[in-house]
Amino acid sequence: MFADMRLTARSLILVSLATTLVLSLVYSTSIRFGHADVAVARTAAEIQPLGPGDPAPRFKVETVDNKRFDFDPRTLERPAILIAFRGGWCPYCNMHLSELRHAIPEISAMGIDVLFLSGDRSELLISSLERATQDHIDGLGYTVLSDANAQASIALGIAFKASDRTLARRHEKGDDVEDSSMARHGVLPVPAVFAVDGAGMITFAYANPDYKIRLSSDELLAAASAIATPE
């Protein structure tokens, strides 16, 4: 009887250890591909973005049509440039999107996908942009995606806690930020750029806590050239 009890206890221990091992492997894989919960930085200055040599994370965002868009670095058909911005309510984001119109067609011609990640919800991805910005990017094939759930910004390590003062200021200005990453999760992304090669590895990263300072078109082109697939 006691022998049977010892055997049962030993079996339970072995099962428990095996389960722990499996969960550990799943957890480590989820970290690699951006599925694990990552602590959101308290301030923009405290973010810890992924950098060159890191595998790009997997994340799910939404298209302008409210359809799911799954970014998976393991199944990329082409290299990609990820450009994260705060939302259409941000004047500096509008200026940056307008400036990049000089570089995006050239980057696309290199065989590289350019994905813009916005904190706005799907239906506001284009309409919330300033009219001048909409005119500048019209016809250029900008792929603007909604990261209102903050999954991409958290996985990329650029998410930080938006202050109540920031949210209140947006409401005072009449900005439509309902269901944005800021209103839904209290999270804002630090504007950032990541270059991901065909193997799903990050080769270039730029993230500046000062949202007024953005990567130039020339610097973006240089980063894109490094991951372009030779014809």
Summarize the structure.
Helix content is 36%, strand content 18%. It is an alpha/beta fold and 231 residues long. The strands form three sheets. A five-stranded mixed beta sheet has the order 5-4-3-8-9.
Walk me through what this model shows.
The chain is α/β, with parallel strands linked by helices and 231 residues long. It has one domain (33-227): Glutaredoxin (3-Layer(aba) Sandwich), CATH 3.40.30.10. The protein is built from eight helices and nine strands. It has helices at residues 2-32, 91-99, 104-109, 131-137, 151-156, 164-172, 181-185, 217-227; strands spanning 59-62, 68-71, 80-85, 113-118, 143-146, 159-161, 187-189, 192-196, 202-207. The strands form three sheets. The chain has a five-stranded mixed β-sheet with strand order 5-4-3-8-9. Strand 8 and strand 9 form a beta hairpin. Helix 2 runs parallel beside helix 4. The longest helix is centred in the N-terminal third of the chain and has 31 residues, at 2-32. It is globular, with a radius of gyration of 21 Å. It starts with a helix and ends with a helix. Residues 17-36 have low confidence and may be disordered.
CATH superfamily: Glutaredoxin
C-alpha termini separation: 73 Å
* Biggest sheet architecture: 5 strands, mixed
Which quaternary structure do these chains form? single chain
Gyration radius over CA = 21 Å
Mean pLDDT across every amino acid position: 85
Itemize the secondary structure elements and their pairings.
Blueprint: H1 2-32, E1 59-62, E2 68-71, E3 80-85, H2 91-99, H3 104-109, E4 113-118, H4 131-137, E5 143-146, H5 151-156, E6 159-161, H6 164-172, H7 181-185, E7 187-189, E8 192-196, E9 202-207, H8 217-227
Parallel strand pairs: 3-4, 4-5
Antiparallel strand pairs: 1-2, 3-8, 6-7, 8-9
Helix pairs in contact: 2-4
